[in-house]
Amino acid sequence: MSDIYESAANSLGLFSSPCLTKVELRLTCKGISDRDALSKPDPCVILKMKSHGQWMEVDRTEVIRSCVNPTYSKVFTLDFYFEEVQRLRLELYDINSGHNGLKEADFLGSVECTLGQIISQRKLTKALLRPGGTVGKAIITISAEELTGNDDYIELSFSARKLDDKDFFSKSDPFLEIYRVNDDATMQLVYRTETVMNNLNPVWKTFKVSLNSLCSGDHERKLQVAIDFTASNGDPRNSCSLHYIHPFQPNEYLKALVGVGEICQDYDSDKMFPAFGFGARIPPDYKVSHDFAVNFNEDNPECAGIQGVVEAYQACLPKLQLYGPTNIAPIIQKVAKSASQEVHTKEAMQYFILLILTDGVITDMSDTREAIVQASHLPMSIIIVGIGNADFSDMQMLDGDDGILRSPKGEPVLRDIVQFVPFRSFKHASPAALAKSVLAEVPNQVVDYYNSKGIKPKVPSEYQSSRSFGP
């Protein structure tokens, strides 16, 4: 990890903000080692969240007796903040059969991740790190469901009659498990009832489950980055330049990039981000370009993670001649072209977010207005972060908060897709505060687009009744 990237990333922290939604997490483990030669482990998972630098216990699963591949019925419900990095740690313990506490428990391993990573992948599988930090054979799978409101629950009651008697000396002790069929044909436990002892005609207690847990489907956010390399930023070799690269202190471009990008990257499954520049003369012929790949690979402008974008940005600076003018319509049109291709797919599962970092007043305002109006019909949002102390008053018009943006021909935007924030307003605030400000409108913009197109969340594939149940 580069020092400059680490310096910017380490400045991120938790930021108090209203909860966007609630998330349900479900856990399964496989391949837990038998620490006791005479019996199998009694595993339990402890969920912790990092707050103010400390790991705090949030909740824990039930203890499943004598099991090396547990599927827990316990559901963790967490408040989810889209614009924050919420770090989680899951610790696996073998609980002593005579105690349910941790005092006599054996620590078996742990994993760390962010809540955003789980939500973006919907199902995250990781190997447990054993005591000492070595990778063990045991794995944990975390499945996530976003809840849209407290009323999205269904109440269920079940009973059974004339069940088979599986015990020799008494009647069976039945319990009921409800599974969901996932898109990949795997089965996910939704709920496990209590056990009714010694009864072949059980009546289980009424219970509630979220409708989300019985459904599936989500939309992926694809982040693309555009950086202003016009001459108004100043010579990068000069310490007064907005593009000056200090060995350890990130400039404002890097702070904004990392502050927003670290949040967005959790919602992009492949973590590969196209990064573009505009307003510079580029090699080999040094003609001005307003939509060149920062890595100079026009066929594949993607960078591996936000760190990859930072490294490509640092590597390209010495090779550029900062020039001008500040035209952003070409980069909006480039991303809109990708978004328009997504419209023609059946489900339009990808939603594009264009992050533009710029230091000056744009010079192609008419073309930019036209490009935004056309883009408002597509699955994309535009985030503009103003760097430096220029007059950004024209940017407020693009934002649309003070009125409906219209093209030069008078055509209004179909929906508000632009959010502008001047970085100077967050110079003395945490990068998490910047991320909150620029990303707060994105969730509603995503929902507005899919609602306008009548596109509903995906539902599981039709149930196939070929699942065999063992004894």
Automatic annotation (TrEMBL):
PROSITE patterns given in the database record: C2
* Keyword annotations of the record: Calcium, Metal-binding, Repeat
CDD domains for the chain: C2A_Copine, C2B_Copine
Family the UniProt entry places it in: Belongs to the copine family.
Q: Which organism is it from?
A: Fundulus heteroclitus (Killifish)
What the entry lists under SMART domains is as follows: C2, VWA
One term under GO cellular component: plasma membrane
User: Could you confirm whether the keyword Repeat appears in this record?
Assistant: yes
Top-level taxon: Eukaryota
- Does the UniProt entry include the keyword Metal-binding? yes
UniProt protein name: Copine 4
Q: Which PANTHER family does the record match to this protein?
A: COPINE (PTHR10857), COPINE-4 (PTHR10857:SF4)
Pinpoint the C2 domain residues.
Answer: 1-128, 134-258
